[in-house]
Design a protein that fits this description.
By secondary structure, the protein is an alpha+beta fold. It contains three helices and six strands. The strands form three sheets. The chain has a two-stranded antiparallel ribbon with strand order 1-4. The chain has a two-stranded antiparallel ribbon with strand order 2-3.
C-alpha cells in the first residue's frame, strides 16, 4: 500500500438535494455511517503496517460507539434547536422593528416639540401662571392647548 494516498479522516460536504425530505443529502443520515458524523475515519493502513496495534483498534471501536451514542441523543433535539433558532430570528426581527419604531416616535416627538416651541414664540398668550397658551387670535377659538413641562418640552392638547 502506498502511503502517498493515505487518508485517515475524510470530510464529506452536505449537498443540496431537492429530492430529499430535508432538502439536503448528508452522510450523517446514512445508515452505513455508524458515528453519524460528516467525516469518515479509516486507519486500515496504519493497522496493516503495524503502526497501530490492536489496543488502538479497541480504542477506536469504543470511540465510534461513544460518538454514535452521543449523536443519537442529539438527533431528537435537532428539531427543538431549529425551533429555538427560528424564535431567535423572530425576536431579533421584532427588536429591530421596535427599535425603528422608537426612533420614528422620537423623531415625531421632537418635531412636535419644535412646532410647539414655534407656536409659543409666535402666539405667546401665556396666562399668569404660565401653564398654557390657548389661542392664536381673537377671531378663531382655541383649537389646542400647548402645555410646557419643567424640562422645556411642550405637549399639545387638542381641544374638541
Amino acid at each position: 500500500m502506498d502511503s502517498t494516498d493515505l487518508t485517515t479522516k475524510l470530510y464529506v460536504r452536505t449537498m443540496d438535494d431537492s429530492s430529499t425530505l430535508l432538502g439536503y443529502a448528508s452522510i450523517c443520515d446514512s445508515p452505513a455511517n455508524k458515528i453519524k458524523e460528516d467525516y469518515i475515519l479509516n486507519f486500515d493502513y496504519l493497522f496493516e503496517t503495524g503502526s497501530l496495534d490492536e489496543t488502538y483498534r479497541t480504542f477506536l471501536e469504543e470511540y465510534d460507539k461513544n460518538i454514535y451514542l452521543y449523536n443519537s441523543r442529539l438527533i431528537p433535539l435537532e428539531a427543538e434547536i431549529a425551533a429555538y433558532e427560528d424564535k431567535i430570528t423572530e425576536l431579533e426581527a421584532n427588536i429591530t422593528l421596535y427599535t425603528n419604531s422608537i426612533a420614528l416616535d422620537t423623531e415625531q416627538i421632537n418635531a412636535n416639540s419644535a412646532l410647539a416651541q414655534e407656536l409659543v414664540a409666535k402666539y405667546d398668550n401665556t396666562n399668569t401662571e404660565g401653564t398654557y397658551i390657548d389661542a392664536y387670535n381673537s377671531s378663531h377659538p382655541a383649537i389646542a392647548t400647548i402645555i410646557p413641562d419643567a424640562n422645556g418640552n411642550y405637549y399639545i392638547n387638542l381641544n374638541a
